[in-house]
Amino acid sequence: MIMNKERRVYDLLEELKIQYTTYEHKPVFTIEEANQLNIDIQGSHCKNLFIRNRKGNQHYLVVLMDSKKVDLKGLSKQICSTNLSFASEERLLKYLDLTPGAVTPFGLINDQDKHVQVLLDKDLIGSEYICFHPNVNTATISIAYKDFEKFLSWCKNKVFYVEIL
Questions:
Q1: How high is the pLDDT of residue 73?
Q2: Mind listing the domains of the chain with CATH numbers?
Q3: pTM to 2 decimal places
Q4: pLDDT tens-digit profile of 64-85?
């Protein structure tokens, strides 16, 4: 059964003429759980982290290769920010209308004020396809990387390319 949050993603992708492939699966809450699925999903698999600065007045969505770990101290220096930490579930719901386990760039469609800035791992740029949850953790969709950039352009949130080692 497709939830409203998920339907909005598919409707927008169709409006933007972005082709996608959907893979339905049991709910997954971590990359480790997703990697245990017995599904061959085409594309670079991503980890998506919702973080905030020390004051809590700026929020970021970090999109990186699923095999990487982010150094928040190094990332804060790279983007000239105060210390970074993970944002609360309440903040995730407030800004992206998402819940833990379903963090995805597609949540940006809910950020009407364009408050959240996107920090995109430079290593994703060369990907042919890229994979994300469609605002729920019971499916994964694969889209062409160039179409992901088209989606980000439509969102109008600020996007910064960062180096995550």
A1: 96
A2: 4-162 (3.90.960.10)
A3: 0.94
A4: 999 999 999 999 999 999 999 9
